[in-house]
## 1
Amino acid sequence: MEDLEQLVAFAKKGTLSGAARSLHMSQPSLSRTMRRLESEFKVPLFDRDRNTIALNENGEMAVEYASRLLAMHDEMMRHVREYDRSRHTIAVASCAPAPLWEASRILSQMQPDMTVSSEMKSDDDMLEGVSDGTYRMVILNNPAKGTLEELSLIGAPLMTETLYLAVPQTHPLARFDEMRFKDFNGYNILLLNGIGFWEDVCREHLPASRLLRQSDSESFVAIAQTTDLLYFVTKASMRIYERPVRDRKLVRITDADATAEFHCVCRADDAGFLNAFVTAVAARP
């Protein structure tokens, strides 16, 4: 395969010197490879004159086949590695962190001999990924039934999550039990990075607010505990993190976009896995 890679590199660069540089090898070594290929093919692949070498028609055909073989080789390696990983790993993706934490915990209890890999992705990436087998399960916010059916996917409810605004007890907004986004649009908001689609919700509904993003959760907690900045919490995140909110009033946000109905989604031919997961969800404490 290495010789074929060098042949394709020569075809792309057009010169031995250019191909040798791109391959980080010497030009004499590349020349020997070209002669070795001609010996293996038992036909001339190049037209040579005193100072140059160029592919002839045989060589151009060889390059075409070599390119296909290299692509097939890469695809084979990728698929075999993915297959091996799938035998030992349950890959999950989600549009938000809290349901991802919850699903990962349940899956680890269901199949303790498997590794659970998890990541945050967009809805489009997740639908494509679960359809092609990249993910065993994905977690979407209220997916459309028609979309799932069209893609031969099935889903089941996992959890509901609602945003609350954590307000200092002495803050003017603390007199409210419920609010809408528009009621505090314009206030500075402390925001933790990596919250998935919730960040899009905040940007859409709080255009006049300054969103003070923190990438490190420990820094976020330290700032939240030592300042009067407003920030969001959900009861799911407090339960999962086992981190109660002290000296703050939790004001429920009543906009429709402030509540997410998360569903776990799998391929229709993986219904047994989904049913076992749903049973484990129902049995959680």
## 2
Amino acid sequence: MPYRFSRWLALPVSTVVFAFNVHAGPVLDRIQSTQTLTIGYRANSAPISYEEKGRVIGYAIDVCQRVAALLQQQLKLPKLAVRYVPLTSAERIPALQDGRIDLECAGTTNTKARREQAAFGLTYFYAGASVLVRDGEGIGGLNDLRGKTLAAVKGTTGQQVVEMRERDGRAGWKLALFDNTRAAVQALEQGKVDAVIQDNIQLVPLARQSGKKLVLAGQPLSIEPLAPMFARNDAELAEGVLAAMRQIYRDGEMAALYERWFLKPLPGRTFGLDLKLSPLLNDNFRRPSSYVTDWVVL
């Protein structure tokens, strides 16, 4: 298995007590027996998850490290190794299903279709599919792409938005699929495609990094709840992850994490995102609930 990075959590098992079933499910049993939690992440998706100077960091990574610490307490382990596996969007669900990872901590949208294949934790961000273009080319959104080439990342909701438009006869573009956002944006910079559709939270950092050569066109095309994802076949793992996330939310940690990753300069970058906390997400932080509506295409 291509583990890239590892760290150990060695925390006192005393501060938080959860009601927990005696018999662990298959994934939780594997975590307990190996004393290892394997996390899947996206290598170039700042600020959600990315690599910087040999470390895996990001907003989702910080959240999941806290989840790992609380799982360690739940399982009464003296230590818990956290290993990281880089994945593409298309690889994430198969990696959960075949046991390559235990938890995916990236920018995955909690959709009804995905809930048939995997389980989700609490929402930690609301994204929206958006279109990134080269500045000054007169493209204001999907409606201006007739006869042009539109890039999407395989297995993403951005690809689904495009395919919905195509089925409705509102297309006229040539669709080019890429394995990851970085490759799609590089094609845009090189003039090989005319636009990229992807979650805005992945595109905003790349637009800032371009020095205004790349800009987001138009308004978001969807409302998408992002959350950590894990296997469906382990009710005890779901119980543990949800209990840990509720604890983190109720303790007020999420506001501090949000400020670090969305309001301050990004580690390893020369800019910040200056994205204010939305009322919808703030309500999630104050009143954590596992209830989620399906993502909405606008």
## 3
Amino acid sequence: MIDTEKKLSRLDFNLLIPLSVLLKEKNISRAAEQLSISQSGMSKTLQRLRDLFDDPLFYRTSRGVIPTVRAKELELLLPDVVAALENIMISSSFDPKTSEKCFNISVPAILSHSITLPLINHLIEHAPNVRINEQQILLNPLPLLESGALDFAVHLQKPDDNNFAAISLGQVTPIIYAKQNHPLFKYKQVSLEHCLAYNFVELLISSGDVIPADNPLNKLLFGENKVKQTILTSSQMHILIEVMNHSDYLFVGSSLQMSSMSLSQQIKPVYEFDMSNKKPFDLYLIHHNRITNSEAHQWLKQLFMTSTI
């Protein structure tokens, strides 16, 4: 512990308010009345202050008390100290219109258009100075949420740790997308076999991902005996869209993709997976309980929910 902290550890901050009142009133009886304590209680408090600052602080006169030089010095400092203590004890109010707060969020790249984009559009209009730092999603975002490096993470897995809260953002349905004029749209009813006749592009979901040929997601969606041929894997959605528009490649995305106006103008659903006999994909907004009492974080959480659900 440094010297300043050692000195402050001796200080009872409850004594600063009586000192401030006594300096204003310059009368022990009136100061006691202002603080709703007895005169003897005020006298005891004054003695503790004298011991603390090693100074008489006040001398009695026929009109009350007069401060010493040390007390006058303290009188100049006390307003700022009391104001600082008040700021510590009282949470500062959060105003989205004027706030310059920065939030760190993690959203799967495959959902960025449908989650991050509406969020940013709202901020542009209602909270123009609030900043969003979107980071690559990790397979396990909990350590970063715990350390404070992340404020929120959108994830498909609900944590089983009570230190974290998970709010459901709903369920996502996997869908195969194609460019607007893809040959598959000539069929009245497109089957999975129709789709598997074409090559696919795939989006990296998280940093450090290595997508194997036997990706468990592929087995869940396509079945044990059906394999899709992936030609390009990238972390950049716009690259995949560009490639799709210059080829007949397909892309497996989510139902949320269609909420993005820019994407819906370039690609559209060609096949929706039947999830009736499969476990649905639940989407969660996860945060650590450390932000529970933060007005700013609760505001952004509500915004996440209204922008997504």
## 4
Amino acid sequence: MQKFLLTLSITITYFFSSAQCTPNSLYQDSSYNIWPDTVQNLPHVTQGLSYYTQIYLKTPETLIEAASGDSSLTTIDTLGNSYYIGTWPVDSMTMVSTIGLPSGISLDCNTTSCFFPGNVVGCANVYGITNDPVGVYPITIEINVYTHGSITVFGFPIAVETDLYTATGAYETIEGYKIVIDAATDIEAFHKDDFVLFQNVPNPCSATTYFKFYSPKSASVQFTVIDMFGREIITNMISASNGLNSYKFKHSLAPGIYLYSINNGVEQISKRMIVVEK
């Protein structure tokens, strides 16, 4: 059984590591941001099983947008004068490094070296297999921003091309993200011919949660959510593949306790989830 799961995980990981994510154009009119945010955060990882999720980002158009409107971060002092450079464009932005990822988990982008022009939508794959200990792994993303503009010194305009690290000696850091590693005990305890539903993650959840289930064959699976009064409030059809499947569930459910179930036409399995306020 463990050999079967190992082979399955290696196959899935190879597929994701060779696949390229697709930026979501819905975010093009947004300001500088990353999705999911640090409140929703990243889905959990299960020890020894293939992990895959995507991160979307919108790069800033100007330095003041990159500084989240803080003008104190977009003023430079040189030769006894202060210069406001918040209107300078963001020529490009790069994810320099991702610190704190569990071993075996990688991040790569839809662009070479995670290098993005300003004012575009991009994305990144987070994928791999880890056997690191169960726990919470805080993640820090280091970012460098490149820009150009001009300042007037003694009446003469001087062209400037620089980047955040060259100018300040430090990268911008984004903190608050984390990967939680869960034990593999429950997932190892089923047979390859079983139809199995796992607990949603995160639980409790707010606007988004993830469901994993194992299907012994490719099939159409009905996903249903029922409230505590027995009312069927959501029904979706999922095209399940043979093996471990992951389903992202975005919703606007009111806070409370719900039952969710999957049905492959032969067997129905249900579990309970808790929805909290956003």
